[in-house]
Design a protein that fits this description.
heterodimer, A: about 300 residues, Formate dehydrogenase/DMSO reductase fold, 2 strands, about 75% helix, B: about 250 residues, mainly alpha, 2 domains, two-stranded antiparallel ribbon, 6 strands, about 60% helix
Chain lengths: ~300, ~250
């Protein structure tokens, strides 16, 4: 039963990352791809009608988390309080920048809000990646299922870890690259004309960075060998990383063949494959503890009583 | 909306739209104002009187239980001495509103132990009275507007139009005062009668963090409010209707 709820939460979170991921990706890239105000406007219009609905998936994921795993919700939202609030502020700034941008005709106005949009999107990607890094690495949960971790310490590989740390920032950078890639593939689908060629070029270049993430994942398993345990017990789980690789290969092939909608679908599959692989390696933990494996929050002890 | 219409009519720009805004705003407003008196506002008041008695006593400024309890229109609560300074009372009205009988007994704050009183009685009392006072003002203004409309003089009576235009901020103030009443009135409980606010405080997140994020949100919201006023002012000046947008 707990496993079913975990799948549900994972679906919600994956849905959010796939959908809002390309909005964030567009935000990261738009200042790099577009050279004029008209082009920037075209890029933003590509996400214009959908970005708000995509963000709703975050609420759905949070709500499902609350109902399905209240102990995890309590531990993570209290322990991650400051970064959570910062993510909220970034989401507010991103939304505001998108909506306010076209209200005043002046050049300074739109330049300012474009910059806010870009910075907010970049930081969002890094923060979300850092959150994933924290979940994978674990936090100092105590026996009561609570933890306090400083927001940052000294970013050194040894000594006390912080929520923003060399490892989690690294995962954040990976997330930045992956979401930028996803956004670029979306743009190849949604933007016509001369810009389309540029988006193709960016997407293909970012493809190599995304391919790097597959290699990095293998490196990650050397760092945290416990992750391989799930694969040994349930070899069926290999389907998730295979999904990711298939998705990635699919993007390259479809982009080459100018089938952009299929390329975007393949990119979604790649992200879903990556996220499900992470969930699978974590299973049955939902939030490991660095203060002793007995303090791990698992599917069993974090879920609601009935 | 009616205020915006009044502004357009008074300043003689976009007059056709101004009159439309006046009509629509007035119609909805007058319905809402009277509905808020009865049944929705009345229903809320009776519910609070029944289920949150200390709150009800505090917000009405009723310190001592009495039969035939009055409504205080004006008055400053003096909590240590348990009385209202300079009160202006309508006798027996509170008994009637709460229990439908002019002589019913209404419980005052003296009936409840002090640890069940809301912490900040003056704030509760004033926010409640501001909300209800403005609600009454709405009814009065819209009633007069109805009279003017029936006489066919709504668009030409400058006094009425000025009143409508200047009362634009009132709904926002009344709304906020209402929320303050609800939240302050619920204290010291976070779940009324079952869990105190003190018990709901997180032991993990130190108060300093909350201050940081509260100030952060206040900062963001203040900036957004200023931007909002700026943009809305531009839109109002622009006026309604097809214009080449800065798209």
């Amino acid at each position: 039963m707990g496993a079913i709820w975990l799948c549900l939460v994972a679906v919600m979170i994956a849905g959010y990352v796939v959908l809002d991921g390309f909005d964030i990706g567009v935000g990261i890239l738009h200042l790099l791809i577009a050279h004029t105000d008209d082009e920037r406007r075209a890029l933003i219009q590509s996400i214009g009608p959908v970005w708000d609905g995509n963000e709703v998936w975050l609420l759905a994921a949070g709500g499902t988390l609350y109902f399905a795993f209240p102990a995890l919700y309590a531990a993570s939202f209290s322990g991650f309080y400051l970064p959570l609030m910062m993510v909220l502020w970034l989401l507010i700034l991103r939304g505001v920048s998108l909506e306010f941008r076209s209200h005043v005709g002046g050049h300074l106005w739109s330049v300012f809000w474009d910059a806010v949009f870009a910075v907010a999107s970049i930081l969002l990607a890094v923060f979300f990646g850092a959150a994933l890094g924290n979940v994978v690495r674990g936090v100092p949960l105590d026996a009561a299922g609570n933890f306090f971790e400083p927001l940052w310490t000294n970013f050194q590989p040894t000594g006390q870890t912080g929520i923003l740390d060399w490892y989690t920032i690294l995962v954040g950078m990976v997330a930045l690259a992956v979401l930028a890639f996803h956004g670029a593939v979306w743009l190849t689908w949604r933007v016509r004309g001369e810009l389309n060629g540029r988006t193709h070029a960016v997407a293909l270049r970012l493809w190599w960075v995304a391919a790097l993430t597959i290699i990095l994942t293998f490196v990650n398993f050397r760092l945290l060998p416990v992750g391989l345990y799930s694969f040994r017990v349930h070899p069926l789980g290999f389907i998730f990383p295979l999904l990711a690789i298939a998705g990635l290969v699919g993007v390259k092939l479809f982009l080459r063949g100018n089938q952009e909608a299929a390329a975007f679908a393949a990119s979604c599959v790649y992200i879903i494959g990556m996220l499900t692989s992470v969930t699978f390696t974590l299973y049955p933990n939902v939030l490991p503890s660095t203060a002793g494996i007995i303090n791990n929050l698992t599917v069993a002890n974090a879920k609601a009583a009935h | 909306m009616a205020a915006l219409g009044a502004y357009y009519v008074l300043s003689e720009q976009h007059e056709k739209f101004g009159k439309l805004f006046l009509r629509v705003g007035f119609t909805v407003g007058v319905l809402a104002a009277f509905l808020q008196l009865y049944p929705t506002g009345d229903g809320q008041g009776i519910m609070i009187a029944r289920h949150q008695e200390p709150t009800h006593a505090a917000m009405e400024g009723l310190f001592h239980t009495q039969a035939g309890a009055p409504i205080a229109i004006l008055g400053q609560p003096d909590v240590p001495n348990m009385r209202l300074d300079n009160p202006l009372h309508i006798p027996n009205a509170l008994s009637f509103l709460t229990c439908k009988k002019w002589t019913a007994t209404v419980k005052g704050l003296d009936q409840f132990p002090q640890d069940e009183w809301p912490d900040n009685i003056p704030l509760l009392y004033f926010s409640y009275h501001i909300m209800v006072g403005l609600g009454t003002v709405f009814i009065a203004i819209l009633f007069l507007a109805a009279v003017q409309l029936l006489r066919g003089k709504l668009y030409t009576s400058r006094v009425m139009l000025w009143t409508l235009m200047l009362s634009a901020p009132f709904p926002f103030i009344a709304n906020t005062a209402g929320w303050i009443t609800a939240e302050v009135g619920r204290q010291p409980w976070i779940i009324y009668g079952m869990m105190r606010t003190r018990a709901g405080v997180s032991s993990l997140v130190a108060a300093g963090n909350i201050w940081f994020t509260l100030l952060g949100f206040m900062g963001i919201y203040s900036i957004l409010a200023i931007l909002f006023l700026f943009l809305v002012y531009r839109e109002i000046e622009h006026g309604p209707g097809p214009e080449p947008s800065a798209e």
